[in-house]
Amino acid sequence: MKLDITRGIQKKGVDVPFDLVDVWGEDRWNGDTIAYVRPVSVSGTYMLADETVILRAVARACIESPCARCLKPAQVQVQAEVNEAFVRDTGDPQQEFDEDAYRYSGHVLELDDAVRTALLQELPSRILCKEDCKGLCPQCGADLNVHECSCQKDLTHRNPFSALASLLNEDEEV
Ligand SMILES: [Zn+2]
Ligand SMILES: [Zn+2]
Q: Measured between alpha carbons, how far is residue 70 from residues 3, 50, 120, 131, 148 in Å?
């Protein structure tokens, strides 16, 4: 996602509005493969303060991830503020930068890193297909949203004595 700042360079100190849309594919997040299922959009303004570009924008995306409980694809709308400064890289090897400063050279800002970081920070820690997703049965793997399996019933009614009884029964059968 590239932002052409030619207009801003010509008019320093002035907020220049912009809108960008880009199609992103898959990404990795918390060990899962996620996908940007609609184009990612970024809109806002940028301004050149001397040679540093001050960006104030909002990024929007729709992200698909496996549901944390049932693993079915789940989608979340994400909106994130992208307020960052981009320092001009003069190409001089002696030039010093803040460690986490974004850089640009020429008249183009590469926004992907800043936008991606802002969006992923806004994701909930667990993405669910629905708030009350019942997940998968840990024993047989049945999707409990679709139907309750019989092992689920055993679990809820089990007491120490019936567990012991079934163990004894298994021993007898051997
Ligand atoms: Zn689910
Ligand atoms: Zn089960």
A: 39, 52, 21, 12, 13
Q: What is the pLDDT of residues 63-113, one digit of tens each?
A: 999 999 999 999 999 999 999 999 999 888 888 888 778 999 999 999 999
- Mean pLDDT is lowest, of 13-27, 39-53, 86-100, 153-167, for 153-167
pTM: 0.80
| Neighbouring residues of the ion ligand 2, judged by CB less than 5 Å | 137, 139-140, 142, 149, 151
- Domain segments of the chain as ranges: 2-121, 134-174
CA of 116 to the centre of ligand 2 (A): 38
Nearest to 68 by CA among 117, 24, 29: 29
| Ligand 2: centre distance to CA 167 (Å) | 19
What is the 169 CA–ligand 2 centroid distance (Å)?
21
Burial letters for 13-47: b for 16+ Cβ neighbours within 10 Å, e otherwise?
eeebebebeeebeeeeeeeeebebebebbbebebb
